[in-house]
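FIELD: query
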Amino acid sequence: MEKEKRESIEWTNTWWSEANTDNRRGLLIGDSTTRQLRSSMEALLTNLYAVDLFTASFSIHDRRLDDYIDIFFKGDEYKYDFAVLHYGGHHGFSRLCSESREEYLAYEEKYRKLLKRLKEKCKKVVCVTGTSEVLETDVNTIDQKTEREIIVRNQIVSNVACENGVAMFDLYKLMKSNKGLYTYYDRFHFNRDSDYFISCNLLEFVLSKNVISKELVKQQRMYFESVLMDLAGLNKEYMIYGAGAIGVKLYWVMRWYGMEDAIRCFVETHRKVKETISQKPVVLISELNINERENCTLIISSDRYSQEMYQMAFDMKIRNVIFYRDIINRAFTKCNDVSGGG
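FIELD: result
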């Protein structure tokens, strides 16, 4: 049998979350750019869906892709409530749709078959477009040759999704419109601070298309709000103390659960890494005014420095202080504790 034309290293990566449970499940199918989103997707969907993963580097033309997908779904052990198809954008550049009508039609047919196979396993599927690549020598400059190919492949994704009645999330357009806020760290991948931005926008889209259950999300939002209300009292504005990874994660969780308007600002102790994060101001704790110190709730996001941060809040005479870990322990104990399994 003739060998496929492959990259110098080919790989696959699979993940079954909460593997010994009957939780509701979502599935991401893609490559390493998709894999980057799995943990942030699941963090936002805690208590709603476990999020599984099938990712690979194979070209969409490669017969090995079919083989490994067969293995992933073998036995139908796990059932999926929704699936996200984000495959084909960044691999297989030995065959260019943008330079050959024959290759265009071949790619279109392979993508159509991949979507059909996925729909056999899951009734609710969302297709996602691929994103730009940048130069190896300059991550601030778009690779124009690759750009032409990605645009054509994205048009195929759009056409096939439309003909199959499947919703399409235009990630390409989203990342083009972010005005340089989320940058690349190599040719393919955005910096990790983009993960929650992408995941939250994607989930807001699939929610609007009834791909995930609006009723379940509504229940979880009410429960999350009740936990915060119990910890902080009624009619509070919140300040997130710590603008690092955990603080940013908390912002996106609160946004997903409909509480973005209740977040007043991020707070830092000694220096401001950024002036704003997701359009929320970053302020020094010493700059908080009397109203903020007396009436807003400060959420300490760090475990490692929680005692030092609590002491600083006490010294600044901030009246209302709660801990991120207490919110998580109460609101997100185990997947489906609130909403029930399968």
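FIELD: remark
The chain has a mean pLDDT of 92.
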